[in-house]
Amino acid sequence: MNSDHELTQLRQRVTELERSEARYRNIFESSPISLWEEDWSAVKQYLDRILATGADLDAHLRQHVDDVIACVGLVRILDVNRATLELCQAQDKDQLLRALSVVFNENTLDTFRRELVALGCGAMSYEEETVVRTLLGEDRNVMFRVVVSADCEQTWERCLVSLVDITDRKRTEEALRLSKEETIQAQRELLARLSAPVIPISDDVIVMPFIGQLDQARMQQALGVLLDEVRRLRVTTAILDITGVPEIDAEGTQGLIQAAQAVRLLGAQVVLTGIRPGIAQNLVALGSNLDELVTRGTLQTGIAFAMQNSRARR
């Protein structure tokens, strides 16, 4: 009787295990995430031999890439699911297994090395973003994760690897980043124009008034705006009015001279108005050729000079 009872229990246990395995296989195969069932026992033995020498595993694998490549070859792939075939653009499992060197290439070698270091140092899982290549040559961003089965922590005979395709997310993030950069750049250009506005006086005369501190950085911004407007409007005279500037350092003064020279290269002339005594001293101290720099005491006289020149040109 006892033997019959034990046999019945054994059969029930086998049936339960078969049902459990069937449920696992169904979940494995129907999962929308790429899943790989692998045997890493040979990899563990290889790493154990390295660790037995007392070597630092991370430093060793960095210096000996051939050992990393050897471990890649020791991984036994037991099974993959349908989502894996779709991700890798493979027709069937045989085709995928024959082309693993395409899927996991030099791009993933560093990821695999860090994975080996983590598991070799006692971790039972590892996760990292990486890039795999499909059999059709497309690069896909994936979240790679490997987990050692709880009942195989001593041998690594059963490891489950998952690849979550995050390509679309990465593309969206990149598009948002570029959009943000473009927005920031547009805001900078707008601020530059607001801090150094260009006011048309006539068809060929413009005024750029400055208010507040005028240093080299602001002069560089203003120069970009000024040259764009001189080119766009095809003006003959650009008036830089610094009546509202309390003081200018040597670099800012040098910027004014450079602006005049740059505008002259575009075939126009700069008239500098609102010069204070301190600024005049800086111009002289820099050894500037004042004969080539038209100056007027006020904006009104500068505009009058520019308009008179404009009429004379006609």
TrEMBL record:
Keywords: Phosphoprotein
Annotated InterPro entries: Bact_StressResp_Reg, PAS-like_dom_sf, STAS_dom, STAS_dom_sf
SUPFAM superfamilies: PYP-like sensor domain (PAS domain), SpoIIaa-like
Superkingdom per UniProt: Bacteria
A Pfam family assignment: STAS
Domain STAS: 195-306
PANTHER family linked: RSBT ANTAGONIST PROTEIN RSBS-RELATED, RSBT CO-ANTAGONIST PROTEIN RSBRC
UniProt protein name: STAS domain-containing protein
